[in-house]
Design goal:
The chain has six helices and nine strands. By secondary structure, the chain is of the alpha/beta class. Strand 4, helix 4 (94-99) and strand 5 (104-108) form a beta-alpha-beta unit. It binds 5-O-phosphono-beta-D-ribofuranosylamine. 5-O-phosphono-beta-D-ribofuranosylamine binds at residues 9-14, 42, 86-87, 107-109, 173.
Length: 201
């Protein structure tokens, strides 16, 4: 199974996936790491692991669709089975979702459908939520919306600051995302409408 990981930033989730592949927990190859940001530290992580990178600046394209079509061309060369969005700060277009239908995953740092969007940890903290968490889900054409694969809650205690909460959430992410990818690679995920069934776990 060939995976493409899409990144824009630090890449700690990418690192967790690289580690899970290299220790044999996920039986797959990370064939390419794609980024919209040439300065993303995630690209350094990929290169250190000997993984090919592909950087495309959205500013060089007229439309979101043109941008995504160029990425699709590259993914086709690598025979990609699964697209993993790991801190990729762009919404993929309908063209892209159609091409890789039910084969795109995202990780989001809240218990969806609460706190969608780019500041989910801070939004949950500022809102005074007593519990928040992490969601891994398939991607459809709406923001933070597709069928949920795995979800894990975390308590927000009165001692927590935004920083300790971020740390707790990232720790869960680094365990949950490789687990979801492993289940996909082992063909244990079956989508039925909004539900993702996990078979023979
Ligand atoms: C993570 O919190 C993820 O849930 C969100 O973006 C962040 C990416 O972090 N989608 P990193 O680049 O993997 O360190």
């Amino acid at each position: 199974m060939n995976i493409a990981v899409f990144v824009s930033g630090n890449g700690t989730n990418l690192q967790a996936i690289i580690d899970a592949v290299s220790c044999g927990d996920i039986r797959a190859t990370i064939a390419i790491v794609v980024s919209d940001n040439k300065s993303a530290y995630a690209l350094t992580r990929a290169r250190k692991a000997g993984i090919e990178t592909f950087v495309l600046d959205p500013k060089d394209f007229k439309s979101k669709e043109d941008y995504d079509k160029e990425i699709i061309k590259e993914l086709e060369k690598k025979d990609i089975d699964l697209v993993v969005l790991a801190g990729f700060m762009r919404l993929v277009s309908a063209v892209f979702v159609k091409k890789y239908e039910n084969r795109i995953m995202n990780i989001h740092p809240s218990l969806l459908p609460s706190f969608k969007g780019t500041h989910a940890i801070k939004d949950a903290f500022d809102y005074g939520a007593k519990k928040t968490g992490v969601t891994v889900h398939f991607v459809d054409d709406k923001l933070d919306h597709g069928p949920i694969i795995l979800q894990e809650a975390v308590d927000v205690n009165k001692e927590d600051t935004i920083h300790t909460l971020e740390e707790k959430i990232h720790k869960i992410e680094h365990r949950l995302y490789p687990e979801a990818i492993r289940l996909f690679a082992e063909q244990k995920l079956k989508i039925d409408g909004r539900k993702t069934k996990i078979v023979n776990r």
